[in-house]
Amino acid sequence: MKRPIDPAHLLPHRAPARLVEKILEHGPDRVVCRGSIPPTSPFVANGRAPSFLGLELAAQGAVVLTAGIGDGDAGDDSAPAIGYLVRMRGAALSPEGVPAGAPLIAKIERTGGAGRLGIFSVRVTDGDRTVAEGSLSTVRVDD
Predict the structure, then answer these.
(1) Residues 95 and 18 sit within 8 Å (Cβ to Cβ)
(2) Are residues 31 and 23 in contact, defined by beta-carbon separation less than 8 angstroms?
């Protein structure tokens, strides 16, 4: 039986910068995360945050995926994965933004990569509405 995975063990981010709150599903090449933009975020104005923060949520999800959760070995006491967003292509963002604190679902699928580089197709939704989507690339930094 797989134990729940705590994103805090996989991401170096801390509140309010860590947007991933829970791993809902995962496999070798995909992860589904739930997260939100905290109302205390400096990006929030009039109760809303810009949609590009959905891409940050997805990038954090991609780092979770590259940390090895697909094989069930992540989430132990090892140091968090360090990764950087290095490219974003084909980004589409909702012009309405995102309600602060609203639950967002990020679906991340690995579509390619080599070595420490990962390429992912991402989609972030707020209910039935797509907030952000596109293709992003990350690089994992090993000690």
Answers:
(1) no
(2) yes
What is the gyration radius of the CA atoms in the chain, in angstroms? 14
pLDDT in tens, 81-133: 677 888 999 999 999 999 999 999 999 999 999 988 999 999 999 999 999 99
Residue type, 71: D
- Amino acid sitting at position 97: G
Q: Give phi and psi for 137, each to the nearest 5.
A: -125, 140
Which residue's structure tokens are 């699928």?
109
- Distance CA(70)–CA(99), nearest Å, equals 31
> Global pTM?
0.86
- Helices (runs of H) and strands (runs of E) counted in the chain: 1, 8
Neighbours of 114 (CB within 10 A): 7
- Residue 91 in tokens: 């980004």
- 11, 106, 115, 120: which is closest to 67 by C-alpha? 11
Structure tokens at 36: 């939100």
Residue 32: how many other CB atoms lie within 10 Å:
16
φ and ψ at residue 129, rounded to 5 degrees? -95, 130
